[in-house]
Amino acid sequence: MPTPLDLQDSILAAWDTNCRVTASLIERIPSSLWSMAVPGVPRRSVRALCAHLHNSRCSWIKTLGQEHGIAAPARVDQRAVTRRQLVAALRRSGRGISDLLQLGCGRGGRIPPSKRYVWRNLSLDVGHVLTYFVAHEAHHRGQITLVARQLHCRLPAAATARLWQWRTRLP
Predict the structure, then answer these.
(1) Fewest C-beta in 10 Å: which of 37, 42, 44, 53?
(2) Whole-prediction pTM value?
(3) If DSSP codes are grouped into helix, strand and coil, which group holds residue 156?
């Protein structure tokens, strides 16, 4: 008989896999694409789209975790961050989101409400929080892929294939 799956371990592993997929894509973005403007949004670059992932995580960590002792990492400058700096920053913010999910798992499956959290459209049970964060990042990974195609700068096959090879991305 198989061993029962520990829900906290499963949630944290799923988040870790998502983080690896995001980092893998960002590491493989061609240098020529990094500073290019997003078609139709000339003030936003591919770099800024990528930086948004980390900065968004930081905002959620601050909003939901600060009252509970979870420190948000520093945000990055979306106009100047390098890929290497961003991947390192994503590791830090990934741990922060993991800490939020652990907090929720340790509190009966719900992240405790925060005085800072006024936008009440997200249920704070760990399943919904995890799904929201993964969906947000998947949306932007797709956006980055589409922008690359629009700019005739296709991403390397190793980058796009890894977006869907989650089994090989397991910790």
Answers:
(1) 42
(2) 0.91
(3) coil
Establish if 170 belongs to a structural domain: no
CA distances from 77 to 49, 51, 58, 70 (A): 11, 7, 13, 22
Cα angle for residues 37, 160, 148 (degrees, 5° grid): 15
Domain range for 24: 7-165
Q: Is 108 exposed, middle or buried (0-12, 13-18, 19+ CB in 10 A)?
A: exposed
DSSP string computed for 8-22: HHHHHHHHHHHHHHH
pLDDT band at residue 119 using 50, 70 and 90 as cut-offs: low
Number of folded domains that form the chain: 1
Residue 171 lies in a domain: no
pLDDT band for position 92 (cuts 50, 70, 90): very high
Q: Is residue 157 part of a domain?
A: yes
From residue 20, alpha-carbon distances to 15, 62, 87, 115, 159 in Å are 9, 22, 10, 31, 12
Examine residue 2 and state whether it is found in any structural domain, yes or no: no
Tell me, what CATH number does 156's domain have?
Answer: 1.20.120.450
